[in-house]
Design goal:
Strands 17-16-14-12-11-10-25-26 form an eight-stranded mixed sheet, covered by helices on one side. It has a seven-stranded mixed sheet with strand order 18-19-20-21-22-23-24. By secondary structure, it is an alpha/beta fold. The radius of gyration is 33 Å and the shape is elongated. The protein is built from 25 helices and 26 strands.
Length: 850
C-alpha cells in the first residue's frame, strides 16, 4: 500500500509514538466523525457548552494520567499497553467531542430566526445580499442570497431572518441582472433545497421575482476577483471559438459557462470532471512550474513563486472547497522543502480538512469537498499497489519505454475512481468504465494547457492581438482534449447509470475498502520487518522518471499533432475564405427565434438577428467560421423581442464587432435596452436604419431596408409591435434575398403596396413550426409579388403573431400545395436544420442542407 512506513520505535529510546506517528491523521478523522455524529440520534439535543465540557473532561483526565505516571515513575519508564490505550482513547474522544461542539455551534437550523424555519408553500418576501458569484445558466442566473429579513404579509411587517437560500432568476445576462454584493428584495415560494445545492443553503425560492435595492456591496477583494474572473472568461471567449473556449475557462477558472454545462455529461461519464473543476493535480503542476521558473533566483524565491501561483489559483478558481483544499495542500507542498521538512500528504490532508471544517463544518455534506478529499486520500494509498499490478501485463507490450508512465497514470486514475465511487454514484448517478483511457489521453495535455492558457488569458487583459496569436497555439490542444473526451464518451458501455443507490451501501463499501487497505498496510510493514530481521535490504520501487530522450519524443510528438490539427482546421476553413465563395446560412437554433449568417467574397461577415439562445448561436457560428475568426463586420437586429435579441447580446460580449444596426423602438422592451447597454459597454458603434436606407457591404453587394418607415408606427397605428420589425433586401451577384422575418400583416400590407421592387430568388420568413403559409394573406401577397424560387421558413420568436393559415389538422403543415402555387421550394429549418446557399465560381448558387 502507499502509506509510508514510519519508524515504530525512536532509535536509542525504545519509545513508540502513539498512533504510529499519524496522530494528526487520527485526530482529523475523529474530528470529522464528531461533526457528523452530532446530527445522529439523540446527540443533537446537546448544547455547545455540554460538548465542550465533555471535551475538557477528556483532556483533563488524560493530563492527570500523564502526571500520575510521571509521579509514580520519575525515571521515565516505558508506558504499558493499557496506559497507552487509555491515553490514545482520551485523545481521540477529545477530538470527536470538539468536532461535535463545532458542528453544534455552526448549525444554522438551530437558530429560531433561520430561513429554514419559514413555512414552505405560501408566497413570502425576503431581503438579503447576493453572497456568492452568480452561476450563469442558459435562461438566467442562479444566486445564493444571504437573507437578512423576511415578510409573510406582503411587506407590511418585516422580521429578522438568517441563513442562505438558492434563487433562480430568469432573464438575459446583462448589466441589469443582479451581481455579487447586490441587495435584493425577492418574492416567491420557499421549497426544499435541490440535490447538489451549495453548502449552507437552507431552502430555494421558486417562481422568484427580484428587485435590486442597492448595488456594489460585498467583500471588495471577492468583488475584484469575481470581476477579474469574468473579464478573463470574456477575453478567452473573444480569442477562441466554442466549445474550446468553454473548456479552457473551466480548466483555468473553474467557471461553467452555459456551453460547458451542456457538455458536463461527457466529463462525468468519462471520469474527467477534474479537468474543469479546481483540483490538486492542477495546483501541483502550477506550483512546480512556478518553482522551476523562479528557482534560478534562489530557493526561497522559487518557494515564494509557487505560493503566489497556488494562492492565485485558489482566488481565480472561485474559492470553493476544492480550490481551497488544493491551495492549502499546495502551499504546504511548496513550504516543506524550503523549511527542510518532509512533505506528508496524509498529515497535510488532515491539517487541511481540520482547518476548512473549523470554518465551515457543513462542508462534510458538500459533494465537492467529499470528492476532492477522498481522491486525495485514495491516490497515495492505492496508486502504488495498482501501479505494480498494471506494470506487469504492460511490460509485455513492445513499447516498454512508456509502460511505466502509462501504468502510473492509469493507476492514479483508478485509485481516484475507486476512492470516490460511492460519492460519484450518489451525486451524479454515473459509474465510468472509460476513465483510465480518457485520462490517459488528456491528462498529459494539462500542463501545456495551463501554461499556454494562462498566457492567453493574461494577454487578453494586456494585448488582444497577442491573445489571438496564442489562440493559434492553444486551440489545437483544446480541440484534441475535447475530441478525446467525446470519443471516449461515445464508446459502448462507457458508463452506466445507477439510480436510488442506498446510503448504507456506500458505508459498507468504505468499511470493506478500509479493512482491505489496513490489511495491505500491515502486510507490507510485516514484510519490511521480516526482511530487516533477515538482513535483507528493503524492496525498492523501480524508478519511472522519463528519460530525456522520451521527454523530447513526447514534446515533439505533441508539436507535430498540434500542427496537423491546426493545418487541418485551416484547410477546413479555407473554402469559406476563398475568393468568390459567398455563403448564406439560415441557422437552425431551435424554437423561439431566427438568425442568418452572411459571408461574402470580400470576407465581410454579417449576422442578421441572433436567435433566443447565446450558446446555441455561438456553437453554430463556430461550426461555420474558421476557429480564429472572432469578429463580425455588422450585426443587424430586425426584431427587438427576446427571440432575436438574446443571442446577439451573447455575441456582443464574445466577438469583436465593427458595427451594429437596428430600426430602434417606439416602445423599447427590456431585452432591447439590454442589447443597447451591451453595445455601449463593448464600445461598438450603433446606428438606427429605416426604410430606404442602403448598406453597402462591398462594391457589388447592398442591403436595402424596406421597412419600417422613417417614422415608426405607434402602438395605435400598427397591428402589433412586429409592425416595426425590419425587412431587408440583399442584392449580390447572382442572388436576391428578401428577409421578412416576423413582420406582421400591417407591415407586410404596407410593403406589398409600397411600389418597391420585390422580385427575389429567395424569401426568408419566420413562422411557428406548426403553421402553414396562406397565399390569401398579406404574406401571400408579398410572396406572389416576389415570385421566389426558394422560401426558407425559420422559427418565429414566441410572441410573434404573423398572418398564418388556420391551424392544420395534420401533424405537419401541408407546404406542397403552396409550393406548387408559388412554383417554389419551401424549406423549414425546424425540419431540415440549417439551410445554406453557397456561390459557385460561375455566378450561380447552390442549395445545401435541404
Amino acid at each position: 500500500m502507499g502509506l509510508p512506513a514510519r519508524p515504530s520505535v525512536h532509535p536509542g529510546t525504545g519509545y513508540r509514538p502513539l498512533f504510529g506517528g499519524y496522530a494528526l491523521v487520527c485526530a482529523g478523522a475523529l474530528w470529522l466523525v464528531g461533526i457528523a455524529l452530532r446530527r445522529i440520534g439523540p446527540w443533537g439535543a446537546l448544547a455547545v457548552a455540554q460538548w465542550l465540557g465533555l471535551a475538557a473532561g477528556c483532556a483533563l483526565l488524560g493530563l492527570a494520567l500523564l502526571a500520575l505516571r510521571r509521579w509514580r515513575a520519575p525515571g521515565g519508564t516505558r508506558m504499558d499497553g493499557a496506559s497507552r490505550l487509555l491515553i490514545a482513547g482520551l485523545i481521540l474522544a477529545f477530538w470527536l467531542l470538539l468536532g461535535a461542539a463545532r458542528s453544534t455551534a455552526g448549525d444554522p437550523t438551530a437558530d429560531p430566526h433561520s430561513v429554514g424555519a419559514l413555512p414552505h408553500g405560501p408566497t413570502i418576501q425576503v431581503r438579503g445580499d447576493v453572497a456568492a458569484e452568480p452561476t450563469l445558466e442558459t435562461d438566467g442566473r442562479l444566486l445564493i442570497v444571504q437573507v437578512a429579513s423576511s415578510s409573510l404579509d406582503r411587506g407590511a411587517t418585516w422580521n429578522s431572518t438568517t441563513g442562505r437560500i438558492e434563487v433562480h432568476l430568469t432573464g438575459p445576462d446583462d448589466w441589469f441582472a443582479p451581481g455579487y454584493g447586490d441587495t435584493l428584495e425577492l418574492s416567491g415560494k420557499l421549497q426544499p433545497v435541490t440535490q447538489g445545492a451549495p453548502v449552507g443553503v437552507l431552502a430555494r425560492l421558486a417562481s422568484a421575482r427580484a428587485q435590486i435595492i442597492a448595488r456594489g456591496g460585498g467583500n471588495p477583494l471577492e468583488t475584484f476577483l469575481f470581476g477579474l474572473r469574468v473579464r478573463l472568461a470574456d477575453g478567452i471567449q473573444r480569442a477562441l471559438p466554442e466549445p474550446e473556449a468553454a473548456l479552457l475557462i473551466g480548466i483555468l477558472l473553474g467557471l461553467k459557462t452555459p456551453v460547458l454545462r451542456a457538455r458536463l455529461a461527457l466529463f462525468t461519464s468519462t471520469g474527467t470532471i477534474h479537468l474543469v473543476v479546481p483540483a490538486g493535480l492542477k495546483v501541483s503542476l502550477l506550483a512546480d512550474i512556478a518553482r522551476r521558473v523562479a528557482s534560478p533566483l534562489g530557493r526561497w524565491t522559487g518557494t515564494l513563486a509557487a505560493l503566489v501561483a497556488v494562492t492565485g489559483y485558489a482566488g481565480l478558481g472561485g474559492g470553493g472547497p476544492a480550490a481551497v483544499r488544493a491551495a492549502i495542500m499546495g502551499a504546504l507542498l511548496a513550504l516543506a522543502p524550503a523549511l527542510g521538512r518532509r512533505y506528508d500528504v496524509f498529515a497535510a490532508l488532515a491539517f487541511t480538512v481540520i482547518v476548512m471544517t473549523a470554518f465551515e463544518p457543513l462542508l462534510i455534506y458538500d459533494a465537492g469537498f467529499q470528492l476532492t478529499t477522498l481522491a486525495t486520500l485514495g491516490i497515495p494509498l492505492l496508486a502504488p499497489t495498482l501501479g505494480r499490478w498494471l506494470r506487469a501485463p504492460l511490460a509485455r507490450l513492445p513499447l516498454t519505454t512508456i509502460t511505466g508512465p502509462v501504468a502510473e497514470l492509469m493507476a492514479v486514475t483508478l485509485a481516484a475512481q475507486l476512492a470516490t465511487l460511492p460519492v460519484l454514484a450518489l451525486t451524479f448517478g454515473i459509474i465510468s468504465f472509460v476513465a483510465p483511457l480518457a485520462n490517459l489521453l488528456v491528462v498529459p495535455l494539462l500542463a501545456p494547457l495551463l501554461v499556454l492558457g494562462g498566457a492567453l488569458a493574461a494577454a487578453t487583459l494586456i494585448a488582444a492581438p497577442a491573445a489571438t496569436v496564442l489562440g493559434f497555439v492553444t486551440w489545437p490542444l483544446l480541440w484534441i482534449t475535447d475530441k478525446a473526451i467525446e470519443l471516449c464518451a461515445g464508446l459502448p458501455a462507457a458508463a452506466i447509470t445507477v439510480t436510488a443507490t442506498p446510503i448504507w451501501l456506500a458505508w459498507a463499501y468504505y468499511l470493506v475498502a478500509g479493512l482491505l487497505v489496513l490489511w495491505g498496510i500491515l502486510r507490507v510493514r510485516g514484510q519490511a520487518v521480516a526482511r530487516a530481521a533477515g538482513g535483507l535490504p528493503p524492496l525498492a520501487s523501480p524508478a519511472h522518471a522519463p528519460s530525456p530522450v522520451r521527454r523530447a519524443v513526447f514534446r515533439w510528438s505533441l508539436v507535430v499533432v498540434s500542427a496537423i490539427v491546426l493545418l487541418g482546421a485551416c484547410g477546413a476553413a479555407a473554402p469559406a475564405l476563398a475568393a468568390g465563395n459567398s455563403r448564406i446560412d439560415f441557422l437552425n437554433l431551435g424554437p423561439g427565434g431566427e438568425a442568418t449568417l452572411l459571408r461574402l467574397s470580400s470576407g465581410a461577415t454579417i449576422l442578421i438577428d441572433g436567435g433566443p439562445n447565446g450558446p446555441a448561436l455561438e456553437e453554430a457560428l463556430t461550426a461555420r467560421l474558421p476557429f480564429w475568426q472572432r469578429s463580425l463586420d455588422l450585426a443587424l437586429l430586425t426584431d427587438q423581442r427576446a427571440g432575436d435579441t438574446a443571442g446577439l447580446q451573447d455575441v456582443t460580449a464574445h466577438f469583436e464587432m465593427a458595427q451594429a444596426a437596428d430600426a430602434g423602438a417606439a416602445h423599447p422592451t427590456a431585452v432591447y435596452l439590454a442589447w443597447l447597454d451591451a453595445l455601449a459597454r463593448a464600445g461598438i458603434p450603433h446606428v438606427r436604419i429605416r426604410q430606404n436606407d442602403v448598406i453597402h457591404v462591398q462594391s457589388d453587394t447592398t442591403l436595402t431596408v424596406l421597412g419600417p418607415p422613417q417614422t415608426l408606427y405607434l402602438a395605435a397605428g400598427g397591428a402589433t409591435t412586429a409592425s416595426n420589425d425590419m425587412m431587408v433586401r440583399l442584392d449580390t451577384p447572382g442572388l436576391r434575398v428578401l428577409f421578412l422575418g416576423s413582420a406582421d400583416a400591417y407591415a407586410l400590407d404596407a410593403l406589398a403596396f409600397a411600389g418597391e421592387p420585390l422580385a427575389a430568388d429567395v424569401v426568408e420568413v419566420a413562422l411557428p413550426p406548426d403553421t402553414g403559409i396562406n397565399l390569401d394573406s398579406s404574406l401571400g401577397q408579398v410572396l406572389l409579388a416576389a415570385h421566389p424560387r426558394l422560401v426558407v421558413v425559420t422559427q418565429a420568436p414566441p410572441s410573434a403573431r404573423p398572418h398564418v393559415a388556420p391551424p392544420p389538422t395534420t401533424i405537419w403543415p401541408p407546404d406542397a400545395p403552396t409550393a406548387a402555387s408559388l412554383g417554389a421550394l419551401i424549406v423549414r429549418t425546424s425540419s431540415a436544420g440549417t439551410v445554406s446557399l453557397t456561390a459557385r465560381p460561375d455566378g450561380g448558387w447552390d442549395l445545401l442542407g435541404a
